[in-house]
Amino acid sequence: MTCTDGTVERSRSGARSWVESVGRVLRQPRLRRVLPAMLVSALGDGMSMVAVAWLAVQIAPPGQAGVWTGLAVAAYALPATIGAAALARLVRGFRGVRLVAVDATLRAVALGVIAVLAVAGLLDPVVYVILLAVSSLLHAWGSAGAYTLIAESLPEEGDRVNGYAVLSTFTQAAVVVGPALAGGLAALVGPGWVIGTDAVSFAVLAVSCWAASPRPAAAPVRPAPAAATGSWRIIAGQPRLLGLLAVTGIFFFLYGPVEVALPVHVAQELHGSAGLLGLYWAVFGVGATLGGLGAGLLRHRSLWLVVVSIVIGWGAALLPLGVTDLVGPGLAGLAVGGLIYGPFTAICTALFQRASPPSALSRVLATRTALTIPCTALGTLLGGPLVTAVGGRHTLLLSALLTIALGASVGAVLALHRAWAGWRRRLTGFASTPMTSSAEPSGDRGHDLARAAP
Predict the structure, then answer these.
(1) Higher pLDDT, 216 or 23
(2) Could you tell me which residue, 222 or 79, shows the higher pLDDT?
């Protein structure tokens, strides 16, 4: 009973600590001004999850829906890698809030043009893909800026982890409302108006961040000498980060075809509406929101155990979509998949933040985003012809099976590495144990053997 009471008390204490930490995040003055605008923008971006793909399906030439949907979804992400490299000299000295501001401004303008052309009936698929690509040029820096703003504003590491979790939860919570709202609006007035709403949400974020951005005279920003080593060198010097980056890249690549297969599956195989597609993403968002809220509770767990569990769990959650056309099992699978995936971004960001010098944090996070975004985009590009060849449902099944295989392979490699490390420690320990004659027993031999034991 005493042990049980102690466990309950520790759980209550941990919950109180978590609530207090989240409270400090929400009370920080600059975050209190910017976070509501980030929530509005996340809501708009959640709506674009349906609108971007659905508009591509509508304007694509006959028989080419899969290809143009893949191109559109990829164009909304892939150019971020080009922007991360080509525009580095222009923006790398900016503080986090200004990085968010310039990204939000570009997105608001480019998406606004798309909305005007779509509503006027003048949008061509090629022009659509080009404008989506322009809108995403600064996305790696904008994403890095949001997390850098958290790191700049919160001195305690525990608060930072919860700050990252709050930011990720905003994004996931917006996926609850955004796709469902987008599905309804697209059915009533068309996806062009939905993208216009997304443009307005980014305009709100841009105005908020420009207002919160410190004046150059009051807060000059100069590249720190410590940052001269370069973000890639920082990542390359951390084998753990390199491994995490590699697994994340493959994980995102295998997810990419889902963003093409699901809308085509709903539209052409289930003969459903934009509302049904929005419902699929909404239930995913419900699960992801709950999972994201729990990210702070996982920060003391083994990182690789969490990563492997998320990868395998997400693959398993996709199986109902791949093996049946029934809507109910697919909705349940995406809800569970969201719950499993929810903590992934916050935990990975916390690890990168912990291993990076403060002066180089925004560049390290931008580099990570620039390296992982292409993986999703390349998977999306592959998804276009794959969906055309085998269909949406079979593409979802293939993604699920390969993702499970990835998680199982990483888990097996980690288990073998751990077993090898343990065997090597034992071998080294026994090799270093002093040898004594049986005729001359050593009083220290028992101590040496105990020290050599695992």
Answers:
(1) 23
(2) 79
pTM above 0.70, yes or no: no
Residue 398 CB: number of other CB atoms within 10 A?
18
Residue-level length of the chain: 454
| Most confident region among 7-21, 196-210, 260-274 by mean pLDDT | 196-210
pLDDT at 247 over 80: yes
